[in-house]
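Appendix B. Raw example, untouched.
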Amino acid sequence: MDEAELKQISRVIEANRRRLEQIQDQISRLEMVQAEHADVETSLLTMSGKNEGNMIPIGAGVQLPITTNNTAVVDVGSGIFAEKSMTDTAEIIRTRITDIGVLITELSSEAKGATEKISELTKTLNNSLTKQHEQTQNKESESQPTPKDKKRRGRGFGGELTLDD
């Protein structure tokens, strides 16, 4: 392999490593979203049917009492909100948790493929570099003069050093 091909392989390896980092970051964020959805689902199911006396914290120490209508307002997609029962809202959240799990699985599979590609390309690059290094060493050893061929530098008259020394 020539130097241009080795550089190309190196660039492809780096691109795959960047993609792998992005995938791992996406998986991490999706896992956090999935955990948040699971907490919401648990809360909805816990609150369903026993709303009297429950309070919803909205921040800064403020809580709103839950009324007896037993509904929640949920984003049903594209920024559209609808009032749904607690169990219907919990079902929507459960579906989202499943969908996120499928996406995490797909991304994990893609990450595995990227990791395998990186490993394969790195092995190819290392083998090529090793062969190239061996060839360079062989050429250098063939072109180096033998001890007989070396010009012997001598000293000037009386054993003094010359400019050649």
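End of appendix B.
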